[in-house]
Write a structure and sequence with these properties.
Chain lengths: 115, 112
């Protein structure tokens, strides 16, 4: 079945450590997104990519980095510069060109906690 | 901040229709109405979207008023698995970064 796979489901980070969250899609979608969700809150956009080898900062990019070397993969690194990384991280993808009104589809998220 | 307003919670009896309202007081002509839902500890699930006309798919129906200031998501025969937080969003991908801005949504509880 086509879909978006995020791994791991749960992740623990020590202070000062970088961690990388995986996001893979087999939907042949051009656009991919990373969001952060805090308890009881909506989504906040971290980074997005409309096409391979290109990505842009979202509203809260500080302390995060991404790469888009392959169409199907958009990994997110949470660096030690991110002072409050504990959150639920969601990856999404969207088909069609960047202005097409196709819905974003989400993975099941990675829950990151600080030890 | 979210542009839409929704009631914080609603109850529905299992097997009955669930009608979830949304106000889009500032929607512009080229913005679509999207509905998503989120079950606890899972990613949001796309339900349906539309511009002006009513839409129906295998999950739900979407009714948009003629002035587009309000919409209603209809789950025709609610089941216990439909218990979730439902979000309505105004979105125009053209000229925007495609940022989905979720408000607080409506927590739908389907009861036996």
């Amino acid at each position: 079945d086509g879909g978006i796979t995020q791994s791991p489901k749960y992740l623990f980070r020590k202070e000062g450590q970088n961690v990388t969250l995986s996001c893979e899609q087999n939907l042949n979608h051009d656009a991919m997104y990373w969001y952060r969700q805090d308890p009881g809150q909506g989504l906040r956009l971290i980074y997005y990519s409309q096409i391979v080898n290109d990505f842009q900062k979202g509203d809260i990019a500080e302390g995060y980095s991404v790469s888009r070397e392959k169409k199907e993969s958009f990994p997110l690194t949470v660096t030690s510069a991110q002072k409050n990384p504990t959150a639920f991280y969601l990856c999404a993808s969207k088909g069609g060109h960047d202005r097409a009104h196709q819905p974003q589809h989400f993975g099941d998220g990675t829950r990151l906690s600080i030890l | 901040d979210a542009k839409t307003t929704q009631p914080p919670s609603m109850d529905c009896a299992e097997g009955r229709a669930a009608n979830l309202p949304c106000n889009h007081s500032t929607i512009s002509g080229n913005e679509y109405v999207y509905w998503y839902r989120q079950i606890h500890s899972q990613g949001p699930q796309y339900i349906i979207h539309g511009l002006k006309n009513n839409e129906t798919n295998e999950m739900a129906s979407l009714i948009i008023t003629e002035d587009r200031k309000s919409s209603t998501l209809i789950l025709p025969h609610a089941t216990l698995r439909d218990t979730a937080v439902y979000y309505c969003i105004d979105m125009n991908y053209g000229g925007s970064q495609g940022n989905l801005i979720f408000g607080k949504g409506t927590k739908l509880s389907v009861k036996p």
